[in-house]
Design a protein that fits this description.
The complex is a heterodimer of chains A (about 110) and B (about 110). Chain A is about 0% helix and about 50% strand. Chain A is mainly beta. In chain A, a hairpin with a 6-residue loop joins strand 4 and strand 5. Chain B is mainly β and about 110 residues long. Chain B has no helices and eleven strands. In chain B, strands 2, 4, 5, 9, 10 and 11 form a six-stranded mixed sheet that branches. In chain B, strands 1-3-8-7-6 form a five-stranded antiparallel sheet, with no helix packed on it. Chain B is globular and about 40 Å long. The chains are: A mainly beta (about 110), B mainly beta (about 110). Chains A and B meet through strand 4, strand 5 and strand 9 of A and strand 5, strand 9 and strand 10 of B.
């Protein structure tokens, strides 16, 4: 099993550009989520999904869109990049959406917006 | 507002030594507390999870403790190794859902030879 994979690993954007961060898992997990990690702060939830076709907003959803057309894939779209979106983005998945379910994280995408 | 505070922010120890990392939380209601290890450039990996009824849990050289009354947890690392160099993140659940997690900012541990 590859686990949770994310692409790209690094990305530099100019303000106003759009892009999609890819996330895939091969563990047949129903719950998937996107977090951002900023220096000196804990991970913050952007969007999450409890299954194919179902998504919802987390703590910091503004400027991001998600979709979940399959169980395996959960892409994160930046609509119009801003410098405040410079961060490291992590995708995670778990068997269920309970707090006690272990979340498995991808390796992250380091995004810089100029 | 739910908060998770970790101390120290960073710690440097010599290989073979023990260390203890602290986590204080103000999350309510409390469901469970998990410790993650995050190597540089990688995603977090779960070390251990404790519910309110558990006060100690071990995973190899890692031992986590929980005092739900004082809302404190600690992670003790025994006989440290160079591979223990990482950020250790405390995560507290304020409910039964994964979307109700509050993450601490982590303690950066460096183990020197």
């Amino acid at each position: 099993n590859a686990g949770v994979t994310q692409t790209p690993k690094f990305q530099v954007l100019k303000t106003g550009q759009s892009m999609t961060l890819q996330c895939a898992q091969d563990m047949n997990h129903e719950y998937m989520s996107w977090y951002r990690q900023d220096p000196g702060m804990g991970l913050r939830l952007i969007h999450y999904s409890v299954g194919a076709g179902i998504t919802d907003q987390g703590e910091v959803p503004n400027g991001y869109n998600v979709s979940r057309s399959t169980t395996e894939d959960f892409p994160l779209r930046l609509l119009s990049a801003a410098p405040s979106q410079t961060s490291v983005y992590f995708c995670a998945s778990s068997y269920g959406g309970r707090a006690i379910d272990t979340q498995y994280f991808g390796p992250g995408t380091r995004l810089t917006v100029l | 507002k739910n908060q998770v505070e970790q101390s120290p922010q960073s710690l440097i120890i010599l290989e073979g030594k023990n260390c203890t990392l602290q986590c204080n939380y103000t999350v309510s209601p409390f469901s469970n507390l998990r410790w993650y290890k995050q190597d540089t450039g990688r995603g977090p990996v779960s070390l251990t999870i404790m519910t309110f009824s558990e006060n100690t849990k071990s995973n190899g050289r890692y031992t986590a403790t929980l005092d739900a009354d004082t809302k404190q947890s600690s992670l003790h690392i025994t006989a440290s190794q160079l591979s223990d160099s990482a950020s250790y993140i405390c995560v507290v659940s304020g409910g039964g859902s994964a979307r109700q997690l509050t993450f601490g900012s982590g303690t950066q541990l460096t183990v020197l030879p």
